[in-house]
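Why do we bother with a discrete structure alphabet at all? Because it lets us treat a fold like text: something you can write down, compare, and reason about line by line. To make this less abstract, here is a complete entry for chitin synthase. Read it the way you would read a sentence in a foreign language you are learning: slowly, and without expecting to understand everything at once.
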Amino acid sequence: MLKTCPGIEPAAAAGSHKYFGSLPTVYERTEHSCQYSMATPEFKFESEAQEEDVSYLSVKKKSKIERCTKKLSTHSGPSKLIVVLKWITTTLFAAVILASLVSSKITLLGLAWNVKSGTEREEAFVMCLVVLLAPNVISLVRALWNVIGRSDIPWPSKDCMALVVLSSALESAGLCILVFKTLASGSAASGVSAMQIGFVLPILYHLKKGNRDIRCFRPAVFFSLLCALGGTGVVIYIYVKNSAEVWSLVGIVLVFIAWLPSFHKKMFSPVKSTDIEPKQRVPRGSINRSNTSRSYLHGQSLSSEYSSFKSTYRSIISDIPSPKPDPISEVPCDKTTAWKVLLISSFTKIIFIFGVSSLLPLFLMRDMKFKDIWDKGWDWGIDNMFVLFIVHTSSGIVAYVTGVFACHTCMDRGAFVVPLILSSPLSVVLLVVSSSCDWFKNYSEVSVDFCVSGSSSLVLSIVAMLCTSIALILVFGRVLWNVNKLVLQKETQLFWFPAYNSVMIEQWLFVNRKLSGEKENGIDKTRTRKHEKTRVYICTTMYRESRKEMQQLLESIEKIRQATSSSSAIHFESHVFLDDAVRGYEVTEFALQLVSLLKEALGIEYVLKCTKTATPYGMKLVWKLPGPSEMTFTIHLKDTKKVKKKKRWSQIMYMSYVLDFLSKQYVDKDGNLEVKDSDCFILTTDADVKFTPESVEALLDLMKRDTSVGAVCARTYPLGEGPLVWYQQFEYAAAEHVLGSVLCAPGSFSVYRCSALKDIVPTYATTVERAFDFLIKDMGEDRWLCTLMVQSGWRIEYCAASENETYCPEEFGEFYKQRRRWIASTLANIISLIKEWSLIRALNHRVSYLFCVYQIFLLTSTFIGPSTVIIIIAGGLDYAWGVNVVWSVVLQIAVCLIYTLICVYKNEKWQMQSGKIITFLYAVVMTAVLVGIAEQVAEDLINFDGNKPKSKPGGGDSASSTIEPITRPPGAISDDFPISFVTLYLGLLVAIFIVTGMLHPSEFKCLLNGIIYLLCLPSGYLVLNIYSIVNITDRSWGTREEKEHNTVKVTKPWYNELEIVMRKVFFCCDKKETLEAPPVAESKDDPVNRRHRRDSQTEPLSPQRLSQTIGPGIKYSGSVQGKSLRLSDPLNDSIPEDGDSDEEEQSESGEEYDEENPMLVEKWLPKGMKSYAKIFIDNGFQNTNFLGKLTEIDLKRLGIKKLAHRRNLHRRIQNIPEFRIPVGVPRDPNTWLETVGLAEYKANFRQNHIKTVRDMEALKSFTEKEIREDLHITKPGHIQRMKDAIKRLRNPTKEEREIAEMKEEISQAFKHDLRSVNKEEHKFWKDLLHACLEPDLDAFGSDEILKGNLLTLRNEWLMVSGIVNCLWIVIIMTLSRSIDLQIAGTNPLSLVFLIVFGFLFVLQFVCMLVHRFTTLSHFIARAPYRFGQSYQTSLCQTQMMRIC
């Protein structure tokens, strides 16, 4: 039994199924007798109580602008325009469906009566036969399209097949009897009423089944049964009275027997028991906690054991299992048998309809012969009967498609149920009103018996329809009105059969619609998806984001918290994984910045009301957010010395944390998981993203609709200012979603299904061993994650109804570095996708051949992009300035070669500056090119209007007039169409972009950014491509990198610089030998220096060239006056004694550094290196507060020659937290000097009359020279410390004050040990770290080999790209100069090139149109019918989610 603390409530000590709870925080007191204290007893919170209340001051209140801005930012939900649009759309679709149903019914009566008494009976018979066959032929084609190549769709069992054949035979026979006999036996109105009598059978089914969700359902059904029986009796009486063939009503009965709901359920019963998704049990020994388990947040230790996670991960990573024989069946996709059942049903119906129709003339229609019907029936003409056939066929299709769309967009009440109920009564009204009936009878050319004759027949027809309509309203109307609606359900989820029936389409839609609680494959497709619990983990990766970016994320999380409650159907948790957030036990500045925002952004009144826990990867802080949502917010602070850094490893951390630990904390009393993996999602976000609850719901709508969707990404709007932002705003487009599957769901804002991540995380967690793998895995982790998902059979969708905003690069260098990663990873992933195409097609049927061709075109266009730009620029300069095309091409190639050499041999600063210059020059050239192209377009338009034959008068006689010869413009397609392909192509692009802008009204203004895009086109497709390919060897992230400078600098007088230059020029005359020390690898990719990469580094000097000081003030313990500069310390030639390494390693890992009490360098140095203390002290590095910024280069410049010593010391220095000087104005210079660690210079300050704070103002203008000469500070470490301190000698900003206060408070908060608090979670993290997250030792890693492989790969790509682009330029230039090879004014290859690229643009445009329609459907489906209501969603439940 775990000992409980006296200060904790008994409920807190009890077990809980949640992994979080009311854990005592730093605010709560506990007794020292507890097993472990949850708070620091001495810590008190009196500062806030002692603060004076100044809220009454006007300056402390919010301005009107701030209040309005906050009100606008917090406003959520649909606008009134959306509600009005929903009503207009519903009304329009209701009218279309009603009109289609009525026209379909009346035109069918016209065709049936023409069979009975028309002048062209044979043609009418064949038309009716086609009417019966057409829906089944269409269904057969659709079924084949969806079945071919789909081995994952199961076949129904033999019993189900037999039932399908029997049902299809009954339906076919009944429909044939109905069309050829029943409808024409009585009056037209009685025929409409006769179609309704079959509803007696499904009403009996509902009477037996019942419905608990509808009040007084059974009594209402019983009354409706009486009404239906009464209507049936009236219809029979009408047929008997009119001496009609009453037996023909059997056809309707046969149809409704075939449509019995019980038959539908049996037809779609599962083939195997494995088709039913079993309940997920937590395996024995796994990491889980049942309802009786003890909560970690209550501070209780959990001692249950589970199987070794470590060994599992090792086996997964080291040996990925081979694919199973039938991997497709493992994909959790929609396994409905609807399409294969439809295939059997359609084929059977075609056969039976044709067979029964051929038998009818032999037995029931003896006045006709089938041979005559077949010979004469196909002689159709465009007459009234043909119009009836066309109207009936088209109206049936329109009614079904519109009905499916109404249900798809949650408009089924007004646009589906109401039209279905009103269609038959309205048809009867039109047929009993003499004027309308007579007009249709005359138009159809049928007999006089078509209309109702006599008042009694009129009354009986109305009574029959009234009785059946009441029965439909009480049963089907109420059931369909209350059916559970999911947003954007598919056709197979809405209807049993994804097909239509044009003869009895109204009745077919009634009985074919799936109702609440009806199951397919043993799974309730409507109820379970709606009522199952859903859990969403918001996981964010963060590094060095700004305060504004962090606040934007936190405000988005706060909106999620406000939108949910404890009873919601969806539960959210938020986890932030912050890289390099803690060093040892010291929280870094960016972590403090994030914590300081919590009070304002998340409404946490006391930020320190949290749980601070030391973990194997660093530290974590947990808050339980205020409000009824019970949402937790956790910040995971990563120590890069304990766990691998970078985004991909943070992703693996939260994926494993959710999949293997968090998701197993929620189990029921039977040990089953409360939330299945298919209903557990991870919402990945960047640290600067802005989103709303509505956007999250829109993503989850697509997830809940289709369980085969593994990820859904949203529409991203770039934020920022400047030309680069405008350029990026013009770029965004999406065509992959329509063609097959999205290939990249960016981690900035996407939802992933946990069951899908389980399939790919073993591969995703593998390390980089090859150069090509590095481009795929570490340069574009989001794209690789999605590539793995597509390869595993999952579909990735794009949801434009979900919107988010994120900051994009605003600076040239940051933009180029970001795109350098994107371009390299995109090319690598596309190449990998194309190479493994056959395997992907076998695993994922959604990836079509067209999608493969599309990717090949994109890859080709990317490779030949530079040469294409060169050719376009050369042609434009020829038009604009008359520059020779050949010389223009040669000049551009030379520029490309020069820039390539700069990228290969020069540093990043050179590359960025030269890239900016080339971008500017190309922008100037593109301006001229655009003017030249505009001139050509204008000439083409003038020639198009003016280049027509003109007659010249000759003697007044028209016959003698002469015709001026037509001059064909150069480059024109033909004489009749004197416009060049350039003009035609440009016009097509402009039209596409304008239409696209019109379909995106809110982004229409982005078309203006197209001007910037065109000017920067050469930079984006030429300069950027070269930069990206050359720099694939750069393994840095590129953006938000830590920028620091060397602490120890080398300064050389001018004559030394001149000496170096002269030696390089006259190298052959230099006979002096140099004894340079072995160089240290200082490449920008050196793994040792990755953490402290510098913008500029000075090459190490040889001992002979070192002056007495390495930079002013750096002293050596040895003499510099002789020939040797050897240190007097014998350690440079010695090796530490054996047996010290283990002790040093242990002390190194266990050291704790305190800024207030720093460790002296003599104590800090390991055994065997103590003599280096004099070097450190003489240069101003006397304690650990001064050592934190030293790099390995600095150590070498200090005089530590031994490479092994430098590496050892540098590794220890990296464990020292960075000493940050607080920003502020001190009380006096003495206090300030003590704070910055330079108290020894107090006398120097007094000598310079710096005695008060006012005197310290002079320090702000001090340079290094004044610091050295006036203050007599000569040690490099002290000089750098003084310069840093002077920079921070100012009044702190509000944010800096908050960070300083937060640092003080967090340092005083009590820290728990995860090993004592939660053994299960501690073991999980230890196993995960040991499996794949332990940081590699740089010296023993494969970084050097990888660097060499990347260089080789870079050279290969450069060679291939150069050869391909050169060949393309030569071919295009050669063909363009050959007049004989030109086709339509251009060379064949250019024509093919334009056609291919034009095809890509048109394909993307068509896909955009399709996707805009689906996006509009999504908006309509989510829109409410009342003002003030929130959006509808698949996750909504009554009184469960406030936003619903």
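What the structure line is telling us, in plain words: The first helix runs from residue 10 to 13. Residues 865-949+973-1039 form one domain.
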